[in-house]
Amino acid sequence: MAGSGDSFRALLRAANALLQQRRYHAALAVIKGFRNGAVYGAKIRAPHALVMTFLFKSGSLREKLKSIAQATYTHSRNLAYFVFTYKGLLAAQSQLQGKKIPFHSFLAACIGGWLVFGDNNPINSQIIMYLLSRILFGLSRLAVEKGYIPQPRQDPFPLVAALVWGTVLWLFEYHRESLQPSLQASMTYLYEDSEVWHDLSDFLLYNKRTDSK
Fold it and tell me: Binning pLDDT at 50, 70 and 90, where does residue 143 land?
């Protein structure tokens, strides 16, 4: 028993020594990037899938739990694959050119995005839409910072908020099929289900009655 414990400690010391080697840093960063992508994807998707599934999806408890597990696995796997691909390509380009330049990041991410997130499915669509909204905000701020557009005299956020909500509700009312399914479900709950009730139970306690009254 003691011998196995000594062997384990020796193995642990060797692993820790390897992790400190600078020449292996790029390769080890790719591996840890894969790990962090998997963990972060699971942390982000699991609570979201849990809420959305129990709020808007029908079916047995087993079916709901299976749906949550599948969504969590897909998000976790895709993010892990993307980080692994991105960091691997980034390291390869830096090694080939002897230095890191901004285009390396763009090219590596483009290739990773095509390979990992190119499949048009609900999980990937949500991730891309999440990123797109933040890209638009980021590019707007960068354009002001670089002087490409003048600094607004007033905070433009109230106007942006008005236009976003005006557009999305117009689309929901008149072109609903153009919106992403989970957004349709959320808006149906908020703006259509609130029009229907039968008594106090489904007016205050529940969204919809489940009995046959």
Answer: very high
3-state SS, residue 211: coil
Express each pLDDT in 65-93 by its tens digit.
999 999 999 999 999 999 999 999 999 99
Ordered by start, the domain boundaries in the chain are 12-118, 155-205
Q: Which two tokens stand for residue 132?
A: 């797109």
* 48 vs 51: CA distance, rounded Å: 5
CA-closest candidate to residue 198, choices 190, 186, 207:
207
> Whole-angstrom Cα distance, residue 72 to residue 79?
11
Rounded to whole angstroms, the Cα distance separating 212 from 72 reads 35
Number of alpha helices (DSSP H) and beta strands (DSSP E) in the chain: 8, 0
What is the DSSP secondary structure assignment for residue 199, as one 8-state letter?
Answer: S
Residues 6+ apart with CB under 8 A from 30: 84, 87, 88, 91
